[in-house]
């Protein structure tokens, strides 16, 4: 397979993919390079049988009379509602798992996380299981409220000035599931035609997505799986050790692995692997749930070495031939891995029917059947190992990645590392050693500049300008594999940030893990604003999703805007066909929430714009 379009910030990976004997998503970029101009601008509507209608200067309205602004806003709201639904699915399952774990009196690994949540929610319990039950139950009750009943944890979790702002704007969300439903209704045919109303609705979905789907998913998972601990870990394809039975995991629902992880560390299971000819089992991290595994990796070092790569690295991970099974439970599991799995006899198992793959076995996770499920999975993977090893080629890339990536960073572990409060960071910001903070978050995609190119180049530009980068999402996978999360990367930072990194022994890019951890960044931002007694839009902090990919990323972005944060995107969402939508998101938003969208693909120009915003915010604070 020739690959003229294999382009990655990770040159080692790029060469490996270009030389593979099978087709990957990277190879398909060329065939899909002619984009539909109407789709790109968001002015294709196929909501009814009169369509598809496409807006042009000569025909500025669809047959029903909808203009470009209405069509663009409807399409955008539809995408945000879908993205919100995905994250709400994740937090719902997570809360259900915690509730079931509490009933079964399963071990609570993150006692501190539970205590903090209970305090924040203002609840007490007779013991930790009672407390865990009540925490999970409160989350579920909020998720299941009707649209007309506001979720009560929003006020408890949100920063007060933000809560007041949302109240004033009328965008406090009702029950998160109902809000998805209401959003989908609103953007159907011949209903709402008010683009501004629909865009404000997106902010409301952003709030429920962010506080519940993002922030709470992390915290509930911490209770069940243990809290992140800062440590060094290897990353990249080099983590794959063919002496073990290797299970690659993809998705976003770490709580679905609680029991399996425990089982895999059981000596009895290791004996089974040994009887099959391997040294034991290893989980190989991929996509966001792999970031979750890495983040909490200190709790199960025997079965987890490191994170291999992000969504568009997953085909390469499989192509090594040393992966015996893929365990997937949610998105960023590319359909393109299926033919590769077939070719290399890799067993595919799905734990959640929403992510059921055509040629995979569905072993739907449920708390009640978890023991039986884990044993079934382990046996199926051993069978796969026995059938395929020796019969399929192994094509390792041991030199890929690095062995000393700083990981385990969270809103708690970082604060502890700094001595228990944010003052040292604030002092460095005031002194100008650190100019500001950029949350480089979101996905990885293959368009425009290539796999992780905008993400990595922008990150380099930011650290060069003494802007510390906090990352979350598949962007983290790309940034860590090229070495920017090693303490040695301090050399690439500007003088101020370099000095800080060297004196603390940290990297200039701190990895918070999965996209869900955008919720952890929200906590950091809230606490920084609190410490300074200012509102969030005043912080010298910018979010950037240089290579956003999915509808979920759009919902995340709306959360950022609701928080009043500037949000850089490498590529415009599909809204260019509406001058009004563009104006609302890039200009008017400054007056509405304090946030703004900045679109810029060129990494240097993007860094210029981000730096200018940060300079402006610093001026506003007189620093
Ligand atoms: Fe065309 Fe209106 Fe139907 Fe959309 S809803 S396809 S714009 S007629
Ligand atoms: Fe993700």
Describe this structure in words.
This protein has 623 residues and is an alpha/beta fold. The protein folds into four domains: 11-49, no CATH class; 68-225, Substrate Binding Domain Of Dnak, Chain:A, Domain 2 (Up-down Bundle); 237-388, 3-Layer(aba) Sandwich (Rossmann fold), CATH 3.40.50; 403-620, Rossmann fold, CATH 3.40.50. It is 48% helix and 11% strand. The protein has 25 helices and 16 strands. A six-stranded parallel β-sheet has the order 6-5-4-7-8-9, sandwiched between helices. The chain has a six-stranded parallel β-sheet with strand order 13-12-11-14-15-16, sandwiched between helices. The longest helix is centred in the first third of the chain and has 36 residues, at 68-103. The protein is globular and about 65 Å long. The N and C termini lie far apart (55 Å). The mean pLDDT is 97. Iron/sulfur cluster binds at residues 45-48, 50-53, 62-64, 66, 71, 189.
CATH A-level architecture of the largest domain: 3-Layer(aba) Sandwich
Specify the helix fraction band. 40-55%
Mean pLDDT: 97
Q: How many domains would you count in the coordinates? A: 4
Largest sheet: 6 strands, parallel
Reported by name, the CATH topology of the largest domain is: Rossmann fold
Distinct ligands, ions and cofactors found in the model: iron/sulfur cluster, fe (ii) ion
CATH top level of the largest domain is: Alpha Beta
- Number of extended strands: 16
What percent of residues are in strands? 5-15%
């Amino acid at each position: 397979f020739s690959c003229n379009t294999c382009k990655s910030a990770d040159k080692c990976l790029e060469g490996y993919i270009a030389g593979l004997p099978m087709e990957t998503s990277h190879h398909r970029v060329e065939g899909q390079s002619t984009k539909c101009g109407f789709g790109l601008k968001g002015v294709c509507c196929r909501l009814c049988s009169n369509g598809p209608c496409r807006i042009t200067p000569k025909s500025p309205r669809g047959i029903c009379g909808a203009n470009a602004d209405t069509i663009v806003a409807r399409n955008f709201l539809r995408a945000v509602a879908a993205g919100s639904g995905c994250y709400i699915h994740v937090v719902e399952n997570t809360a259900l798992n915690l509730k079931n774990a509490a009933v079964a009196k399963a071990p609570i690994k993150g006692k501190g996380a539970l205590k903090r949540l209970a305090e924040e929610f203002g609840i007490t319990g007779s013991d930790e299981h009672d407390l865990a039950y009540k925490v999970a139950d409160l989350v579920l009750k909020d998720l299941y409220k009707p649209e007309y009943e506001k979720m009560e944890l929003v006020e408890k979790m949100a920063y007060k000035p933000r809560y007041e702002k949302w109240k004033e704007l009328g965008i406090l969300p009702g029950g998160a599931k109902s809000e998805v439903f209401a959003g989908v209704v609103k953007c159907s045919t011949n209903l709402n035609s008010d683009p501004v109303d629909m865009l404000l609705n997106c902010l409301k979905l952003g709030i429920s997505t962010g506080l519940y789907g993002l922030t709470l998913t992390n915290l509930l998972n911490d209770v069940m799986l243990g809290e992140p601990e800062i440590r060094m870990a290897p990353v990249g394809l080099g983590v794959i050790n063919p002496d073990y039975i290797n299970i690659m995991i993809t998705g976003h629902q770490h709580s679905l692995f609680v029991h399996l992880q425990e089982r895999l560390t059981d000596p009895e299971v290791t004996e089974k692997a040994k009887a099959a000819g391997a040294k034991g089992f290893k989980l190989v991290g991929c996509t966001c749930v792999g970031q979750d595994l890495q983040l909490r990796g200190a709790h199960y070092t025997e079965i987890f070495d490191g994170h291999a790569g992000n969504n568009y690295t997953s085909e390469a991970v499989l192509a090594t031939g040393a992966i015996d099974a893929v365990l997937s439970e949610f998105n960023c599991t590319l359909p393109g891995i299926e033919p590769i799995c077939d070719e290399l006899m890799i067993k595919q198992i799905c734990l959640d029917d929403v992510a059921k793959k055509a040629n995979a076995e569905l072993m739907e996770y449920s708390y009640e059947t978890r023991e039986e499920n884990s044993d079934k999975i382990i046996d199926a993977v051993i069978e796969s190992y026995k059938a395929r090893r020796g019969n399929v080629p192994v094509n390792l890339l041991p030199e890929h990645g690095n062995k000393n990536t700083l990981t385990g960073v969270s809103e708690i572990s970082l604060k502890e590392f700094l001595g228990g409060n944010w003052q040292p960071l604030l002092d460095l910001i005031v002194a100008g050693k650190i100019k500001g903070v950029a949350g480089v978050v979101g996905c990885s995609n293959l368009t425009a500049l290539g796999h992780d190119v905008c993400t990595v180049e922008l990150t380099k530009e930011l650290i060069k300008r003494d802007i510390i980068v906090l990352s979350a999402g598949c962007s983290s996978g790309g940034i860590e594999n090229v070495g920017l999360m090693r303490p040695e990367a301090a050399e690439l930072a500007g003088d101020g940030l370099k000095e800080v990194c060297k004196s603390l022994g940290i990297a200039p890019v701190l990895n918070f893990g999965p996209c869900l951890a955008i919720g952890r960044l929200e906590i950091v931002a809230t606490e920084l604003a609190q410490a300074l007694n200012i509102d969030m839009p005043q912080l010298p902090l910018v979010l950037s999703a240089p290579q956003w990919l999915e509808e979920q990323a759009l919902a995340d972005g709306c959360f950022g805007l609701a928080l009043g944060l500037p949000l850089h995107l490498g590529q415009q969402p599909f809204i260019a066909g509406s001058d009004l939508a563009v104006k609302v998101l890039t200009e008017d938003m400054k007056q509405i929430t304090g946030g703004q969208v900045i679109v810029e693909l060129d990494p240097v120009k993007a860094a210029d714009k981000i730096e200018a915003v940060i300079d402006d915010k610093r001026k506003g604070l007189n620093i």
